[in-house]
Design brief:
- The structure is a single chain.
- The chain is mainly alpha-helical and 202 residues long.
- It has a single domain, classed as Growth Hormone, Chain: A (Up-down Bundle), CATH 1.20.1250.20.
- The chain is 81% helix and 0% strand.
- Helix 1 packs antiparallel against helix 6, helix 2 packs across helix 7 and helix 3 runs antiparallel to helix 6.
Length: 202
């Protein structure tokens, strides 16, 4: 998560620095956000049905492959703005599945009596990364070439995958899902549960 946040900041800052165009920066931000808006509502049922461990591993690998492609393009001096757009779209799609799978895995591996504490620590970690990533990215961009900054994401992805491989993450019991696979039925069911559990008090 930290490596991805650093690289996302670095790419946005690189485009700002090299082009000086607000349009280019806005397009890059849209490339990073739109896949999450469009695909986000559809990711939940897949995460419930597939192995969350495999989702996180393959998402990390996919995000890393896009980063490796950028490293090669920066190293060879052939990088173009549209290359960064494509990479940001690909990385964003990977994050659509990675982040919810991570959040959904916590209740499966943490004892119930520690769940509130674990969720609190997870939220704190996410906020800490949001605060630490921009200055870390700015510092790395002043000390390393762009391909070096991007390599941080590759290194942290390898660490993340190495931590996930030996970790056992149980799947939710099949009785909590539809007896027969029904993707849109799962989406409607999740929306109904979410609506019933929402607190509308001020």
């Amino acid at each position: 998560m930290f490596g991805s946040s650093v690289v996302n900041f670095a790419l946005a800052w690189y485009l700002t620095r090299e082009t000086g165009s607000a349009t280019v920066l806005a397009t890059a931000l849209m490339a990073a956000v739109i896949p999450q808006i469009v695909l986000g509502p559809f990711a939940g049922p897949f995460i419930d049905r597939w192995s969350r461990k495999k989702i996180m591993i393959f998402s990390d690998i996919a995000i890393t492959l896009f980063t490796v492609l950028l490293v090669i393009l920066f190293y060879t001096g052939t990088i173009q703005v549209w290359h960064i757009y494509v990479a940001m779209i690909g990385r964003s799609i990977g994050e659509v599945f990675q982040s919810p799978a991570l959040g959904a895995s916590i209740p499966m591996i943490v004892p119930e009596k520690q769940l509130v504490r674990a969720n609190g620590l997870y939220q704190m970690l996410q906020n800490a990364i949001k605060i630490a990533a921009p200055p870390a990215g700015a510092f790395l961009m002043e000390t390393l070439p762009m391909q070096g900054v991007l390599s941080v994401d590759i290194i942290t992805a390898f660490i993340a995958v190495a931590c996930l491989i030996p970790l056992a993450i149980p799947q939710p019991p099949r009785t909590t899902l539809a007896v027969k696979a029904n993707y849109f039925g799962d989406m409607r069911r999740a929306s109904t549960i979410s609506g019933q559990g929402r607190d509308w008090s001020c």
